[in-house]
């Protein structure tokens, strides 16, 4: 594989977990910038131009609910998991652990079984 | 430009690309988020937020087009999977129109060509756009149904034979047909064929139509296409095009000027449609008959090892 091919493929890999990462931090209400900082603090840096529209889309799909709060100065929109979002988060978490386990097996023995 | 104006412009550029009902709400949220991002960026550099940091930060945020596209699922007129088809249809259509221009009777062929090309591209855009819209609204969610690519619609083939027979009668003896349909009335004299066209050129077309009728009869009996029949089909189509081109250049179709001009226009349009039909058949591959290709596929032989 060419060295130049690695960054786009790594991005592709990260793209798949962005939703789960965002949902994991929205069990309590957060606004966009706060969420991005929380994710970055855990080592998951997500571009702002990706994360903020994603929150809107998830809200449109009923995964998140939101409300405006102005008690800390500037008006901010806080997002939190809806009931459907909590169910989705649970399912995605199970899927993630399943994938993680399978990938762990694949990567540990390199995918070779003697053939 | 100061930072606030820069942020306002950026947010405007993003929200103008969103559906109207989302704009105000997204603008309010995005403005505050962008401001906070930029302040965070400046703080990380130990500086006060200025225009340079703001510009770099906004560029890192993404182009307004990219950011807006992430907020909703935009309607794509030509989806990525259809782009090749769109390009192919556009190029083939334009090539045919350019090829037919020298045969045009128009006083300003360049203007007519430009209009025809624009009309063709417009038709393609509307067709692909409608198709994409239908898929977006869930038409594509219907379960995929396997189809036999080489199976022939027998009833359709028989109907085509009937149409060819009626065509030969209608074009070969229009006066007789008119008299039959109107209890003996005579067809208007201005619809008389040019004698040379009627006696020498028109029968050639009838011979080709007869051959096509035999092809459809064969298909109706066999019930399936094969490579040879597909090649014959394309060859007969090409022969009809050549004969129609001959009609255009060899002389008048009717004695009178007005019906003659209408006939030549209709012949030109027929050539256009036939060429598109042949182009589509060649693009799909006349040699691609399911069983015969799969047998020769190199990837298949590799997997058998």
CATH topology of chain A: Arc Repressor Mutant, subunit A
Distance between the termini of chain A: 22 Å
Tell me the greatest interface: A-B, 19 and 20 residues
Report helical residue fraction of chain B. over 70%
Beta-strand content of chain B: under 5%
Percent range of helical residues of chain A: 55-70%
CATH first level of chain A: Mainly Alpha
Record field, number of beta strands of chain B: 0
Give the total of beta strands of chain A: 3
Major beta sheet, strand line-up of chain A: 1-3-2
Q: What is Rg of chain B?
A: 30 Å
Question: What sequence of helices (H) and strands (E) makes up the elements of chain B?
Answer: HHHHHHHHHHHHH
Residue-averaged pLDDT of chain A, rounded? 87
Strand content of chain A: 5-15%
In quaternary terms, these chains amount to: heterodimer
Structural description of this entry:
- The complex is a heterodimer of chains A (115) and B (305).
- With 115 residues, chain A is α+β, with helices and mostly antiparallel strands.
- Chain A contains 5 helices and 3 strands; from the N terminus they run ααβααββα.
- Chain A has a single domain, classed as Winged helix-like DNA-binding domain superfamily/Winged helix DNA-binding domain (Arc Repressor Mutant, subunit A, Orthogonal Bundle).
- In chain A, 57% of the residues lie in helices and 12% in strands.
- In chain A, 22% of the residues are buried.
- The N and C termini of chain B lie far apart (69 Å).
- In chain B, helix 5 runs antiparallel to helix 6.
- In chain B, 12% of the residues are buried.
- The longest helix of chain B has 28 residues.
- Chain B is mainly alpha-helical and 305 residues long.
- In chain B, 73% of the residues lie in helices and 0% in strands.
Mind sketching the topology for me?
The complex is a heterodimer of chains A (115) and B (305).
Chain A (H helix, E strand, L loop, with lengths): L5 H10 L2 H7 L5 E2 H10 L6 H13 L3 E6 L6 E6 L1 H26 L7
Antiparallel strand pairs in A: 1-3, 2-3
Chain B lengths: L2 H13 L4 H25 L6 H11 L2 H8 L11 H18 L8 H28 L17 H19 L1 H8 L13 H28 L4 H24 L6 H28 L5 H7 L1 H7 L1
């Amino acid at each position: 594989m060419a060295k130049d091919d690695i960054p786009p493929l790594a991005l592709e890999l990260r793209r798949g977990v962005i939703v789960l990462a965002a949902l994991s931090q929205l069990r309590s209400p957060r606004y966009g910038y706060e969420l991005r900082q929380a994710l970055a603090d855990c080592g998951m840096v997500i571009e702002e131009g990706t994360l903020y529209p994603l929150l809107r889309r998830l809200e449109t799909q009923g995964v998140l609910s939101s409300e405006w709060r102005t008690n800390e100065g500037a008006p901010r929109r806080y997002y939190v998991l809806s009931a459907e979002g909590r169910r989705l988060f649970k399912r995605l978490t199970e899927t993630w652990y399943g994938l993680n386990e399978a990938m762990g097996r694949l990567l540990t023995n390199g995918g070779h079984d003697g053939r | 430009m100061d930072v606030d104006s820069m942020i306002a412009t950026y947010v405007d550029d993003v929200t103008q690309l969103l559906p109207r009902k989302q704009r105000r709400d997204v603008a309010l949220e995005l403005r505050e988020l962008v401001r906070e991002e930029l302040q965070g960026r400046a703080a990380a550099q130990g500086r006060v937020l200025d225009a340079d940091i703001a510009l770099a930060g906004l560029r890192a945020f993404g182009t307004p087009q990219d950011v807006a596209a992430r907020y909703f699922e935009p309607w794509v007129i030509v989806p990525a999977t259809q782009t090749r088809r769109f390009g192919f249809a556009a190029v083939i259509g334009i090539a045919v129109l350019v090829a037919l221009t020298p045969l045009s009777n128009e006083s300003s062929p360049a203007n007519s060509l430009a209009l025809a090309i624009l009309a063709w591209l417009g038709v393609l855009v509307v067709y692909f756009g409608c198709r994409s819209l239908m898929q977006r609204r869930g038409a594509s969610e219907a379960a995929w149904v396997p189809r036999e690519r080489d199976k022939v619609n027998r009833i359709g083939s028989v109907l085509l034979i009937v149409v060819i027979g009626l065509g030969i009668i209608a074009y070969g003896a229009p006066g007789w047909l008119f008299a039959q349909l109107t209890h003996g009335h005579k067809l208007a004299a201005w619809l008389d064929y040019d004698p040379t066209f009627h006696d020498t050129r028109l029968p050639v077309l009838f011979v080709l139509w007869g051959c096509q009728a035999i092809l459809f009869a064969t298909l109706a009996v066999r019930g399936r296409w094969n490579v040879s029949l597909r090649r014959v089909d394309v060859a007969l189509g090409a022969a009809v095009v050549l004969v129609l081109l001959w009609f255009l250049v060899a002389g008048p179709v009717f004695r009178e000027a007005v019906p003659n001009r209408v006939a030549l226009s209709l012949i030109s349009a027929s050539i256009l449609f036939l060429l598109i039909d042949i182009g589509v058949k060649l693009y799909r591959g006349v040699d691609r008959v399911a069983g015969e290709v799969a047998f020769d596929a190199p990837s298949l032989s590799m997997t058998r090892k």
